[in-house]
Amino acid sequence: FRPGRSCHDALRVLGRTIERQGTQYVVEADIKAFFDNVDQNQLMAFLAHRVADKRVLRYIRRFLKAGIQEDGVYRASDRGPPQGGVISPLLANLYLHYTLDLWFQRRFQPGCTGSARLIRYADDYVACFKREADAKRFRIEMEKRLGLFGLEIAPEKTRILAFGPMAQQWAKEQGRRKAETFDFLGFTHYCTTSRNGKWFRVGRKTISRRLSAKLKVFKEWLRANRTLPT
Fold first, then answer.
1. Which phi and psi (to 5°) does residue 123 adopt?
2. How far is CA 212 from CA 117, 208, 216, 217, 226, in A?
3. How many CB atoms lie under 10 A from the CB of residue 206?
4. What is the separation of C-alpha 109 from the centre of its chain, rounded to a whole number of angstroms?
């Protein structure tokens, strides 16, 4: 949701980080109902750090308090930016910039014993680490940090996995055929090698359940429209 910051850019940076910066562990995380749990007062406090014009702040407050109308029924909004609102992606980025990005860059990363990087696109993010201890510490401290700002992670979608040049070898030593995979921005990421088999590579494929759902919709469309003239 910013110029020069697309999903493709995030995927490119993630692949480069894992392949070239010694990543061996990935923390896959998911914030539970992010847009429904953003604290509006805290968000306005973040905005006030950079925006001095009270009129701009007043307009943004009106956006937040405008409410939602669904099927003719009005509902007031006292938490989070309005989903579907034109300003919501920008406000979501601002909120996570202060709650997550700056904290990782200034507080957490300097204490890591190996390389560490956070890759985020809107409210989807993964963190890459060289040391398992750093990954485990991030999993614990991230949950505490988000909790300070009214956010909560989804435990069933948050995990630490070995993912990097050594992951496949470790998986075989543990009796598993393949290393674990993780999902990010619509793709399942898996460990693979270059065509000549000499170099580690990050492979990507569309998340299977999304592909199946889309194929099902397309199949139904074909069934309903196959009598149309070419």
1. -100, 10
2. 32, 6, 6, 9, 20
3. 12
4. 18
Q: What is the pLDDT of residues 78-106, one digit of tens each?
A: 778 877 778 888 888 999 999 999 999 99
Residue 115 CB-density burial (10 A; 0-12 exposed, 13-18 middle, 19+ buried): middle
Half-sphere exposure of 212 (CA within 13 A, CB side): 3
Q: Which tokens is 164 given?
A: 């990097």
- State pTM to two decimals: 0.86
The amino acid occupying position 183 is D
Q: What is the pLDDT of residues 41-65, one digit of tens each?
A: 999 999 999 899 999 999 999 888 8
Q: Residue 4 has what pLDDT? A: 82
Residue 124, CB-side half-sphere exposure with 13 Å CA sphere: 13
Render the burial of 179-202: b for 16+ CB within 10 Å, e for the rest. bbbebbbebbbbbeeeeeeeebeb
Nearest CA to 202 among 191, 215, 187, 214?
191
